[in-house]
Write a structure and sequence with these properties.
Largest sheet: 2 strands, antiparallel
Order of helices and strands: EHHEHHHEEH
Strand content: 25-35%
Shape: globular
Strand order of the largest sheet: 1-2
Number of strands: 4
Radius of gyration: 17 Å
Length: 150
């Protein structure tokens, strides 16, 4: 992977591709809020994957993600049966709304995956994406399980 992150590409409508190229870090600052919003929807199974649909040309944009950013987007995309590119497009649309940018980031997220069984007989993985409220600063988090255990 290297210190610069995971290199991949996303397919975006041409009208927003330059926003992603120039402001990706700022846009990804809204990822936790965005993921909490899309995870209010239902998990989709027994359906095919949805991709970006817009009445305009698309551009392939090479991009780097930090592992946690990509893993959390991929987790949500796989659960909702949509492409990571479509989530990135929706994230950009959220960022483009001025009223959304006035809000301070209040949550942080953690993606984890634990293989339970992974062999020729079965593949069983436990995945989770958890969010917790930031408590005062970006470094001081109040973890949800701490609330349960006191």
């Amino acid at each position: 992977m290297g210190s610069k992150g995971l290199m991949t590409s996303v397919s975006l409508p041409a009208s927003v591709a330059d926003y992603w190229r120039g402001r990706k870090r700022e846009i990804l600052g809204y990822n936790e809020r965005f993921l909490r919003m899309v995870m209010r929807g239902r998990v989709r199974r027994g359906v095919t994957r949805r991709y970006n649909r817009a009445g305009e040309a698309f551009e392939i944009v090479c991009t780097r993600f930090r592992p946690g950013e990509y893993d959390s987007l991929h987790f949500a995309a796989a659960s909702l049966r949509v492409s990571v590119s479509s989530l990135v497009y929706l994230l950009i649309k959220l960022w483009l709304k001025p009223q959304r940018r006035r809000h301070v980031q209040r949550f942080c997220a953690n993606y984890s995956m634990a293989p339970v069984v992974w062999d020729s007989a079965a593949g069983i993985l436990e995945e989770s994406l958890t969010f917790w409220r930031l408590n005062g600063s970006l470094t001081a988090c109040e973890l949800p399980w701490r609330q349960l255990t006191g």
